Amino acid sequence: MKLLQATLSLVFLLACSTSTSNASAVHDVCQHLTGGRHKPVVSYDDCVKFFQADKGSATADHRGLAAIAAKIIGATAKSTADRIAHLRASEKDKVRADCLGACAKVYSEAISQIGKAVKGIATGTKGSLGHAGTTLASVLDAPSTCEYGFRKLHKPSLLAAEDAKFRKEVAIALFVTGTLSRNSRITGTSICTENRAKDTMKLLLQALCPLVFLLACSTANASVLQDACKSFAAKHPDIGYGYCTN
Predict the structure, then answer these.
(1) Which of 36, 92, 147, 184 is most exposed, with the fewest beta carbons within 10 Å of its own?
(2) Quick one: pLDDT at residue 226?
(3) Is the separation of the CB atoms in 159 and 146 below 8 Å?
(4) What are the CA-CA distances from residue 25 to residues 13, 57, 157, 176, 244 (Å)?
């Protein structure tokens, strides 16, 4: 009986420890995303709720959260694409229907790109994580492209809520994947060549610069982007300031 009690106590202790550790993973990601001096694109509470939409986040580590984030934005992109298809089916105005068609195209491409990112995160190598971040960065402009079409028509967007939601969710997914890629590089046991290290850092920079730019726009202060790129260039002169700003 004492052995059973001891075993159960140990199991309970391990369960609590795991729960606390993984809850901390969500906290750490959301705290780092929203805790800077800039005005965050996403609030801390919204970030936590984003991950809580998937029950797996309760037991996920950092890499698991990246996979969950990619899964969630994939579902959001699919839901938005379905919404667009529904609107197109009932739209009588040809110009607005064409606008919805353009939105359908960018969200279809986003779904495809997110699928590639999911595979990259699952692979988990330095290169695949870097490529996953770059791939996620490529879908950041999907909502803006869609909204631009409505602005050209001088009419209210039919997808304003969907575009805003997707933009914020991609920002979270890009952040968690980008930081995972960076941490993987730092803690890796070896890097084969100097050129490979440089290429890996460039992939990470490609993934993170769009998010930095998005944050800069949210504050109407381009100096945020400039400062970030200057700081990066100082530590990595072989890559340079211009690579980020261009």
Answers:
(1) 92
(2) 58
(3) yes
(4) 18, 9, 36, 11, 29
pTM given for the model: 0.67
High-pLDDT (> 70) share of the chain, %: 62
145/102 Cα distance (integer angstroms): 8
Q: Give the Å distances, CA to CA, from 227 to 35, 130, 212, 232, 242.
A: 17, 22, 10, 9, 12
Q: Side chain identity at 51, as an amino acid letter?
A: F
Residue 214 has pLDDT above 80, yes or no: no
Superfamily of 38-193 according to CATH: Invertase/pectin methylesterase inhibitor family protein (1.20.140.40)
User: Using CA atoms, how far apart are residues 52 and 216, in angstroms rounded to an integer?
Assistant: 27
- What does the domain layout of the chain look like in residue ranges? 38-193
Look up residue 56 and give its DSSP letter: G
Distances (CA, A) of 101 to 54, 145, 153, 175: 31, 12, 14, 29
Nearest residue to 231 via CA among 205, 196, 197: 205
Please tell me the distance from the alpha carbon of residue 60 to that of residue 55, in angstroms, as a whole number: 9
Output the pLDDT for position 228: 52
Digit-coded pLDDT (tens) for 84-115: 999 999 999 999 999 999 999 999 999 999 99
Residue 183, CA distances (Å) to 17, 94, 101, 111, 155 in order: 23, 49, 40, 26, 44
